[in-house]
Fold this protein.
Amino acid sequence: MFSVILYGRNDSHGYNLHKRGAISFNAIAEVMSDPDDEILFVDYNTPDDHPTFPEAIQDTLTDKAKKVMRIFRVRPEQHVHLKARTHLVALEAQSRNVALRRSNPRNRWILYTNTDMLLVPRNEKESLSDILGAIPDGFYQVPRFELPEMLWEAAFDRRDPAGNLAKLRDWSMRFHLNQVVLNHMPMRYDALGDFQAALREDMFAIHGFNEEMLLGWHCDSNLAARLGLYRGTVDTLVDKVFGYHCDHTRVAAANNKGRQTKMNDHDQFLWQVSTPYLPDQAENWGWPDLDIEEIRLDRDTAFERFAAGVGAAIQPASEPYRTTNLEWHLFNDLTYDLRHTLPFVCDQVLTYPRNSALMLVGTRADFLSHFAIAWRTMGFTGPILVPKECEGLPFDAPGVETGPFADLLRRTDMFIFEFGLATQGVNDPVRIGRSASPVDEQRLKVASRLFRQAVSLEEETRPKGRRLPRRFIGVNVIYNRFWPLFTDYVSANINPFCVQVLAGNPRIDPSMKGKVLRFRGRHAI
Amino acid sequence: MDAWRKSFDFLTGRRLAIYPKTKEEGAFLHAHALARAGDLKGAVATLNGIVATAPDVAAAFEAQGEFLDMLGQTEKAMSLYEASRKLKKGLRPGAPDRPFFLRRASRATAEIASYTSVVQNVKHRVLPLIARGNAFLSEGQPAEALTDYEAALKLKPGLPDVLGLKAEALLMLGRFAQAAATFDGACTAQPRNTDFLSGRAIARLALGRLEDADVDWRHQLDLLPRELASARACVALRLADYEKAVPELERALEKEPHDPYWQLYRMTALRRLGHPISTSFPELKTWPGPLLGLHIKAMSAEELLAQADTPQWKAEALFQLGVLALRDDPAEARRRFDEVVSKAPPSMIEYAAARHELARLGS
């Protein structure tokens, strides 16, 4: 019957976003009763190494919310062409259009709201699907009622949406919450963007939201103006549904800077609107030709993929624990526990697009062979690119492609550099004062050289069309001689020794030292 | 002084009282002013006047429902909201090949009143003028619409969207030559705008420029996307191009299988192509049921014309009688098509189709 369209990203937009989001997702799912109903969440521009917002809070979502939710992940690389035109990190019009394009065509209605809304049918026996199924074609809005921050934060149980809706029915009267704020036509109400229900075919006819609106605010008013023109009227569902907004102004969100807030031009996008249509974006609104990843929370989850990948690559431990050691005199011992390290490496790549091409430069054959199994089993379809300069690595491992380093650089979406001892076996003891053999040193020298070259040439060797820096993952680069090398070139956080892994983008160091490092790296000296 | 006068006008309600053109619009504004001043009962009573004299104004029921809801009379309020929706549900929108503002079926009294208030408060902006103009147009008040569109054009001279609206108002006023010229300007600015092409085709047809009209309709047909089957079907019917109309109507019926007009027009097109027609469909007592009945010989011409008690229905009936007569009695068909052309507005599908049929019959 209807597709709810929401957007956001895995950040901290306003106060206690996670609770607001969970309350809202669960409450919206609760009032759905048609098998075609769906919540479409566009996760816009979350950093590649983070999970999407709903994935980050999935443990607080009900089974029903997980079942009806489809997440469309718009990657930073897909947003970067707009970056120079906006101060915002998440764009409403683009997000909502991406979802609209990919919504279930069997649904008659599209409902635009936000991840801090609870929609309460006035008749407890009716679902929102029932309500929307019974009303005539039109463009419907409801007034938004505010909920004091204390109420939703202190009294709502995230995983009890029915209880939360019942509380709202009680509080609405007890605390006089229901104040309708009227507004000029075509808005009809204040804060109209928290409930705008339009026919799916109308939204396609008017070419979706206006994607020129890049500065935040008034996208809802623009939609009301255009749909108000298209339909000739703005209808109300105030007799059927009350909408409650979890107020979150205790801490200002990124798009709220008080009187200094940058906004889309109200005059241009509301009062000077002269047509419902947007002919300039008629063919390309919602990025129809772009491959947007779809993520589900009820199947093939990140944890399922991780567990499958790591589980396929290594056997469970047979002892309660094993030890390593970071005492200073062991600084030059490059042994590490592969079976312990592999899960942390997999964690670094799991959130990336499945078709990513990954370059792996390393020294230990068993690292590559184990990682290759995990990579495939985690569902990655892109190749593992191993430069032919890396002697001793199993080039015939599944999913591995080899070739000259210089050629592979231009195909790579992210890098893993592993600095271990080629001669270490998977069952050898770890950090007991082992020295590197001549073979180990030779392999490490090659890996270091390729690392410095790759990171120094990163910007100029990006695959065609790619604009953002590629990520470097360093394995066994903490508290050993490769720590300064890796962090000279890569902006990595300080990580616990136990994880063995650092990651980040190439460092932009404008100092003389940085310039010298880059020069040496580029020319392999 | 001016500010003082405006305040005085506002307080005395003078501005509200003198501005609206019709009683219903005035009552709407008055009711809302009363409601905002806290007199909800007075507001409900004021709207009773509209409900009594114009029972097809759905927004009056809805507004009464809102006021009663606020008074705590929820049950009564709900029944009024439902009455409003029932009224809207029973209406058939305008032809899908025509612009969006002509497809609106429900009364626009409330919008005229609301946008009047916006026009007064948000000055020198085109949206309120366009929105109210469109509401006037859908209420069949093209002169008032034209005033608003011209005011909008003063603010944004040459704005193609408004030129197209102005041309439609001129078309509705019967000023076909001016309408065609205004559409020319709009089409020059936006040559792929199907609404402009549709309007210009009608204006050209009304001026007797059948071939020019056909150029526009054929161009419109080329531009309309495949998924807008019903719109494409209507254009094909205006051209009396039944070969093209049948598949479009069949696709329109896939989406809206119970739409009586798509059934009727499909039957018309099949008959004109000499194909067999199905005689089994659910009996439809309301219009256009009698037209379907005519095709399956369940109704005579006299009975049909007796039931066609609006000018639009009359034109539809005469057109179908012409189609039925074509095979055996071309003279009778010509007489029927002539009647359509003399009585129907040029914006009707039947008018255009009849003009094409007459052209084929020869003068």
